[in-house]
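Trying the structure run again after the queue cleared.
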Amino acid sequence: MSVKDSTGPRGGAGHKRRLRPSHKALALASALILGGGGVVIAAQVASAGQDAARSAPVTSTIDCPDVGDRLREVPDQARTEVDRELADLDTQIAEAYGRLSTGRAQADALLGELKDERGKTIDRVSEAIGRNAARPDGLEELSACAMREAPAADGDLARTAGSGAGGSGAVKGGPARADFVPIGSVKPNVRKPAPKSGASKGSFAVECGRNDERHLNPDNVIVAPGVSNGAHHMHDYVGNKITDAFSTNNSLAAAGTTCNKGDQSTYYWPVLRLRDGKAEQDAAAPGGGQDANVGTILRPKQVTIEFKGSPVSRVTAMPRFLRIITGDAKALTNGPANANASWSCTGFENRQLKDKYPICPKGSDVVRTFNFQSCWDGKNTDSANHRTHVAFAGRDGSCPSGFKAVPQLVQRIVYTLPAGSRFAVDSFPEQLHKPVTDHGDFINVMPDRLMAEAVRCVNGGRTCR
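Done. Tokens:
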């Protein structure tokens, strides 16, 4: 359902940390990977004193600067146009990666074409902003992209030997063996600040189900409003029943919900898939197979939505339609500055993994936890890069200067997986399904009376279910 009755939020992306290129010269193999495993580099020219035979194969992907993160002010009159152009930048990268991974382009030529295409789009972004405000500085420097290395998936390694572009038995790409770690080998690492005088110790939970309704789409109304397949990966939704790229504040407020207590909020995250080679319903669709997301979509065993307090102060109400993104869908190429993935296993949740998938022991389930930003600037329901209007509390639990504590959203999603199964989170194709790219999205559509009730529970030290 799509209702275009008000202007949606504008787009953007996460923080960009440029990565230094490897000193190694790389030879791209002719082997191709079906399903987005990347372009396998089967041989590396070793540096002086190294044994080339010991150089592990790697996967090559495309690393582009994040234009949306550079935007701090976008005039209201330019938001729709800027949203569209920023979404087009993501599409350009996805299409370039697809051409690279299926052998339809050579790396050097492709990067040159991509730079030219991105340059034109970035110029349109600057022009749209410049009609109503000062043109942003330095955006033109962000057009060039580079190749980026990552460990090759196990299937990719098998594919390098003796298989060419027209060969049969292509292996679907997926995470590398190095992306998994037994949870029992991880030391406890969860630290929580001790509550101080004046802390808000209560909690407020809503029950929104497990998405048994199969509300799935590859849109992202926060980052790419009005753009179908703006995420290039499939999202799981609970809460508001109509959320898609074309949802607006007005349409969300008029919609039904899967949550109890009348909570119409939108809660969503990338789906988790078994890398089982089976064709899902989206095997040939945008956000699915067309964007290198393949395998059986897992339904959560349990989804918990809870709002918690501050260890140092009382909390204030969130404004209705506040938007928060936690984590970074592009953390493989952006670096970890905005990453906020937390992977674990039931019975081991004092051990959280940021850049690895957990291998859980028998009888233990995989857990994804999203601890959202809990500090708000007191003014804005969104920001140009979807980050600067909210912030994380410091190590002592206090908010940065100019920010106030709000109830902290904590989402916990549990999955039962077959023993020994390989799984991966959906991602932008060039992000290679890395665990560090996991992220969660939230739009507060609680009626004001319900948010007030949540604040009373949290500040009053009560557990409200």
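Residues 1-57, 156-172 have pLDDT under 50 and may be disordered. Worth checking whether this holds up in the mutant runs.
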